[in-house]
Write a structure and sequence with these properties.
Largest sheet: 6 strands, mixed
Distance between the termini: 88 Å
Mean pLDDT: 88
Strand content: 35-45%
Radius of gyration: 41 Å
Helix content: 10-25%
Number of helices: 7
């Protein structure tokens, strides 16, 4: 890419293009000697009588929209710069004609516009030729600015410089010339796009790649839109339920799940705890079965699973860790959510007291931790649990009921909600779904 000298180099190349074009068209035979300059309009010397002159003035620089968000700067985790964005600019020029006699300005402006119209792109060879001394002339005879601009590397940037005629309204032109504080002369506007200035900041460079793929086998191309990585697509509890229970077997569906040393990993985001389980017999690349009761805590010494102690009702994430065939490293799939519902162990002890107060003694699985929020819902009434300072599977609930709910023999559907996950009350395996009659308590 080019460097900070590129802006001046573009102006120099355009000036050289106009100068050579006027010579090729032998314009001096029509209007006399002609100069091509690149000065601000207020520095063009008139001195009472104007000479024939074309002036190219860069009046504005704007960021290029197409390159503005390309190759944004980025750093490594240690803060090292690993990438540098180019400074992408569009240059805006005014081409102004000055004449010593009638029609000379129109003639000069016409030739100038024709030259730029016939050169819509500044070729790389043309840029090198304009900024370098022609052979056999030595570069030391070049004007001092050209000696500097030859190091701009403008011809080597990725994008070529494109010239576009830009329409200007009379209001825009009047504002520009009012800012110049000089008399207006015939003018057209052009845009040169795009100049890419490369940052000179140092950056780290990675080592070359030695191998691609296992045993340097290269990149594998598969005739499918599926990702080649192990991926989970669904976690399916039994009987069409939306939650699983502790003694359930769940199904994991996905693709590329085949391999050796398969482990299912469950993560509790509240406790920051991981449980692991082995798949049941017969896992395939698209389907794995796992029994929740088989999950163990890897931080606990080896022993039989303790589902009552390890699990807690709530929301978990599920992932599969495996080693694919032919690979030496383990891969971990994406994570999906699994709701583990509490289970009420029936019968539930119901005791009626004075003032319509009813006490429910509930045994649940898995055990409830002290910090968990527990509510028993009897029909439509929520009853918070009494304090349980230790992990326990026995909970007590007390509430005042309406008289019509206290009649002996009255049955009420009950649900236990732990950290937002409710026990399973609806049998979704039936069509249409129905309430499970086993989830009831009877008033004594």
């Amino acid at each position: 890419m080019s460097n900070a000298l590129a802006i001046a180099a573009v102006t120099a190349v355009l000036k050289d293009l106009l100068n050579n074009g006027l010579i090729d068209h032998d314009v001096s035979t029509h209007v006399g000697p002609v100069k091509v300059t690149a000065l601000p309009p207020d520095r063009v010397k008139i001195n009472g009588e104007e000479s024939s002159q074309l002036n190219l003035f860069m009046y504005q620089v704007t960021p290029n929209i197409g390159w503005r968000n390309v190759d944004l700067p980025s750093r490594s985790p240690r803060g090292e710069r690993i990438n540098n964005p180019p400074l992408a600019l569009d240059l805006h020029y005014l081409l102004t004609a000055y004449g010593s006699q009638e029609h000379h300005t129109e003639i000069l402006l016409g030739y100038g516009m024709q030259i730029l119209h016939e050169t819509p792109v500044l070729g790389r060879d043309a840029i090198r030729k304009a900024l370098a001394a022609p052979s056999p002339v030595n570069g030391t005879v070049l004007p001092e600015p050209f000696k500097t601009l030859s190091a701009s590397d403008l011809a080597d940037q990725i994008e070529q410089i494109k010239l576009t005629l830009q329409p200007q309204t009379s209001e825009e032109l009047s504002k520009l010339w009012a800012a110049f504080q000089v008399h207006y002369r015939p003018t057209t506007a052009y845009q040169a796009s795009v100049v890419l200035i490369e940052s000179q900041r140092s950056r780290i460079q990675p080592l070359p790649v030695l191998t691609v793929g296992p045993a340097d086998q290269g990149v594998f191309v598969l005739p499918t839109l599926l990702s080649p990585l192990p991926t989970l697509t669904a976690v399916i509890p039994p009987k069409k339920q939306i939650s699983a229970m502790l003694d359930d077997v769940i199904i994991l569906e996905g693709h590329h799940l085949d391999g050796s040393s398969i482990t299912i990993r469950f993560f509790d985001p509240l406790r920051k705890k991981i449980l692991e389980a082995d798949p049941m017999a017969g896992p395939t690349a698209t389907r794995i079965s796992v029994a929740l009761a088989d999950a163990i805590d890897p931080e606990v010494p080896p022993g039989p699973p303790q589902p009552e102690k390890n699990w807690s009702a709530g929301v978990y994430t599920v992932a599969v860790v495996l080693k694919r065939p032919g690979e030496t490293t383990f891969r971990t799939t994406n994570e999906l959510t699994l709701s583990l519902a509490p289970k009420i162990v029936f019968p539930v002890s119901v005791t009626k007291g004075a003032d319509n107060k009813v006490t429910f003694d509930v045994t649940c699985q898995p055990e409830v931790r002290p910090e968990q929020r527990v509510v028993l819902i009897v029909s439509h009434q929520e009853i918070p649990s009494k304090a349980h300072p230790t992990q326990t599977g026995s909970l007590t609930f007390e509430a005042v009921f309406l008289p019509e709910m206290l009649e002996a023999g009255t049955k009420h559907l009950v649900r236990l909600r732990v950290d937002g996950v409710e026990s399973i009350l609806i049998d979704r395996s039936k069509t249409p779904p129905a309430f499970d009659p086993s989830q009831e308590v009877t008033m004594p």
